[in-house]
Amino acid sequence: MTTPRQSSLEPLSIANWRWQPFLDHACGALQPLELEPYPVAPEFLLQTSQTGSKSKPVPVTTATWACKTGKLRQVRAACVEAGAAASVLNFVINPSTSYDLPFFGADLVTLPAGHLLALDLQPALKTDAQHTEAVWEKLLPIFEQWQQRLPGGGPIPEEAQPYFSPGFLWTRIPLGSEGDALIEEAVKPAFRDYLELYLQLVQEAEEVSPERSAELLAGQKRYTAYRAEKDPARGMLTRFHGSEWTEAYIHGVLFDLDKNWT
Ligand code: DBV
User: Fold this and answer.
1) 3 state SS of 89
2) 167, pLDDT greater than 70
């Protein structure tokens, strides 16, 4: 059961959802900032459905937690709980283009075949040293510390390269108690460290010129268009909630920069 919420900022709690402690941690870490609700239509705040077979239906919950601050255009968590079929926390922070900041991206995905886990501070302008150097210098030691504890995630598409940092933590972990322990002992602290560094960068960030802001906006638009076009969750969400709802969610909530960039 998930209690309906009036606003994206109200606490989100999904029963038996594997990634709840990660969302709780992120919401807690954001609390010191002045959080405002981010407008999200009711059908995207909470959507329920069923998957599985007619004789063995599995309830599905997809819910959104979101907010904004003076420096962060949109902070949003897409949360999916579908029992053994899927459990997902996709958490993205989109900074305002008035600040030279990367995106925070986390994709924590549990499917019947295992866990797929991605964490990164993703650049809007990957080949621009002014945008990346200070971030990568601080991120790489954190990345190295946790990466050595985790199996590699395998190849990622060549076309995705412009959107990753060298601190892209990407792992696949089998289901079961050993995997659970690895998530607790390495993925959870990595998530905390990446988010802590990100929030430190946000705190230190100072406003940039309108010219710089225009460059950042162009980079953010490329990134967002890529993520919306290639969203690996499209198939799953379409199966759960239909194509019309899914396209409106992807373009209108998850990757909405084109619609809501002011
Ligand atoms: N991914 C999203 C959103 C999701 C989501 C909004 C609402 O961007 C879930 C949910 N990711 C999701 C699911 C899968 C993946 C896979 C359900 C499994 C798809 C499947 O196997 O059916 C990282 N996520 C992946 C993959 C990568 C990432 C590389 C594998 C893609 C593939 O095999 O085709 N997503 C990618 C990434 C970030 C991210 C780098 C940012 C850190 O969020």
Assistant:
1) strand
2) yes
pLDDT of 3 reads 80
Q: Which domains does the chain possess?
A: 20-254 (3.40.1500.20)
Centre of ligand 1 to C-alpha 146, Å, is: 20
Tracing tokens 């919420």 back to the chain, one arrives at 5
**Contact of 95 with 135, CB cutoff 8 Å:** no
* Residue 242, Ramachandran bin (φ over 0: left; ψ between -120 and 50: alpha; else beta): left
Q: Which amino acid is at 29?
A: A
Q: Dmax over Cα atoms in the chain, in whole Å?
A: 60
Ligand 1 atom at minimal distance to the Cα of residue 250? 6
Q: Name the DSSP letter for residue 191.
A: H
- Distance from C-alpha of 149 to C-alpha of 189, rounded to nearest angstrom: 11
Predicted structure pTM score: 0.96
pLDDT average, residue stretch 80-91 = 97
**Cβ atoms of 90 and 64 closer than 8 Å:** no
